[in-house]
Design a protein that fits this description.
The protein is α/β, with parallel strands linked by helices. The protein contains 8 helices and 13 strands. The protein has a single domain, classed as Rossmann fold. Helix content is 26%, strand content 24%.
Length: 282
């Protein structure tokens, strides 16, 4: 979710609801705002939930999504990724394309959002990719297998639901993650309860938390690691394997550099070392 002004454009009609939709009336219908080069998902005119460049449907148009991909600096080739919140599918699509060995499960509670997956060119369900219509907090609490990476970006019309930022939820996130697993949570930077939510993350993850604000000042992205301090990979190690894709590297480079800078500020460790972050700033 990002607060952005709208450019002149047109509205796109709603898609049919999924066949397994149970209670559509409980959820606010989003709309799609379309320009010559973009499609954006909105619940209100003041906020952009997701944005897609139609010339590059698998790219990451919004800065905070590129920053959330910073998990790759800690866990570059996860076997399993869970996402709470589909939105326009930006993060899901990017991971699907550039982390081809990862199995990805995306949980979306709003059937009206899930109905727009084809509008935003979200891949169809397969053996390694699925969109689940359900409650993200319940999924985290009851999932039958651990995940290496968990991305939480579950904003709705009212903001971040309380069920996705409670102490119990963050404790459940720890339990969901595999050993050395990484949680990345997107929070509203200006919300008065954001410091409280970061403190909850500190308690759940034994202080192994780092917060980074995007340049717009709208989003606070929180990285948290299970079972020890955050460890940043060396540049050379990160370039090998899956992440030799130059397009992905170029798209994420500035955000990765921003995250490295945040780690250095927290730890005063040199660029060439294995850096650690054991606490976040308020």
């Amino acid at each position: 979710m990002l607060h952005l002004p709208l450019d002149p454009g047109t509205l796109v009609s709603q898609a049919p609801l999924p066949s397994n939709c149970t209670a559509p009336g409980e959820h606010v219908k989003p709309y799609v705002f379309k320009t010559l080069t973009t499609k954006a998902l909105h619940f209100s005119i003041a906020e952009t939930q997701s944005e897609m460049d139609v010339r590059d449907p698998f790219g990451l148009s919004l800065e905070y999504t590129r920053l959330m991909m910073g998990f790759a600096l800690f866990h570059p080739r996860p076997s399993t990724i869970a996402m709470i919140g589909l939105g326009g599918g930006s993060l899901a699509k990017f991971c699907y394309r550039y982390l081809s060995a990862s199995k990805i499960s995306v949980v979306e509670i709003n059937p009206h959002v899930a109905a727009l997956r084809e509008e935003f060119e979200v891949p169809p369900d397969s053996d390694r990719f699925s969109v689940i219509l359900g409650d993200g907090a319940q999924f985290v609490r009851s999932a039958s297998r651990p995940f290496d990476v968990l991305l939480v970006d579950g904003f709705d019309y009212h903001g971040l639901p309380s069920a996705l930022c409670s102490q119990r939820f963050y404790d459940d996130c720890v339990n969901l993650l595999a050993p050395a697993g990484i949680l990345v949570a997107n929070l509203h930077a200006a919300h008065p309860r954001t410091p409280q939510r970061v403190e909850r993350l500190r308690r759940s993850f034994a202080g192994s938390v780092l917060t980074v604000n995007d340049e717009s000042g709208s989003n606070t992205v929180v990285f948290a690691k299970k079972g020890g301090a955050l460890q940043l990979l060396r540049r050379a190690a990160f370039r090998y394997g899956t992440w030799t894709d130059r397009g992905a590297w170029k798209e994420l480079r500035e955000s990765f550099d921003q995250l490295r800078s945040a780690l250095r500020e927290d730890t005063s460790v040199g660029e060439g070392d294995w850096t650690r972050a054991t606490a976040s700033k308020p």
